Amino acid sequence: MPNFQASKQALKTAPASVYCTLQDLMSLRLVARSVTLPKAKRVSRPQSGSHFSRFRGRGMEFSEVRAYQPGDDVRSIDWRVTARRQKPHTKLFNEERERPVFIVCDQSQSLFFGSQRAFKSVRAAETAALFAWTALNHNDRVGGIVFSEHGHQEVKPARSRKNLLRLLSALCDFNNALKIGLHPAESRFSLNDALVETGRLVKPGTLIVVVSDFLHTNAETRKQLTLLAQHNDLVLTRTFDPLEAELPPPGLYPVSDGDDTLVVNTLSSKTRRQYQEWVSAHMSGLERLANQCRARLIHISTHDDAAYSVRHLLASIS
Predict the structure, then answer these.
(1) Are residues 33 and 166 in the same domain?
(2) Per-residue pLDDT tens over the stretch 181-232
(3) 90 and 116: one domain?
(4) What is the pLDDT of residues 31-84, one digit of tens each?
(5) Per DSSP, which regions of 36-193 are E strands?
(6) Are 109 and 77 in a shared domain?
(7) Which of 41, 140, 146, 214 is deepest in the core (most CB within 10 A)?
(8) Dihedrals φ, ψ of 278, to 5°?
(9) Range of the structural domain that residue 74 is part of
(10) Residues 6+ apart with CB under 8 A from 118
(11) Phi, psi at residue 154, to the nearest 5°?
(12) Domains in the chain: how many in total?
């Protein structure tokens, strides 16, 4: 697949959506109040948080009243119901448990592209920030990894605004380091490497959010995601540009990576057919990958507002 990049002259006059700022990511904290994270599929660690476990115990959220059974905590007896029914009854509570959120955000060169409103790299950073703010609003610990071909930065999960700002700063630093003509380093850091590091950092019961364009997945990607899915919940968030899903109208289109220029001929019906076949195969493969890993898969377009997309897409899978 060709890596459509803006020309050098276009970047000089490009809108702010080519790059994100820390202020942009900070402002998403208000939008995140209306976002709800997917419900946990499994019970996580017994810490204070805002996710209800499947266990019953003493906690913050009242569940129901039932007849007293031997072994029930006498401190939970509901004396009003007991007096009214003349039989001992006890209160049950949903125990609240913590679910850390760990965000893996791709800021590789393949994301440095956008045809209209924003670059994929900007949407990826915004999406990661939305998940981070939402997790903190839920009183969860949040951390993550931001990476590109040139390296990565880790932020260990913590329940603090200061820690979240470290993650947002890393997102901005990696996002603003992208530019046309930037060739990958000799020792390339990949999505697979980021997933390996994630497995080393996260604890069982974590919600892992992977934000990428997933253009470079392979058997190793499937292996690492499968390992992570054994003890964690996964959300795969694909950022894409509509121009990647369908070639533009028939014509000759010069595209450049900043150094070399290639003319894409979309007049050819064979070229259009082959490209569409590649797109269909890539999407089918990504859906199979998500199913094999029991992961939720959502798609964020560069033409849509990130906050709107995340809020409504998560609502549909929660």
Answers:
(1) yes
(2) 666 555 689 999 999 999 999 999 999 999 999 999 999 999 999 999 999 9
(3) no
(4) 888 777 776 654 444 444 455 443 333 345 566 888 988 878 888 889 999 999
(5) 51-67, 89-97, 101-106, 142-148, 151-158
(6) no
(7) 146
(8) -65, -45
(9) 51-97
(10) 17, 18, 302
(11) -100, 140
(12) 2
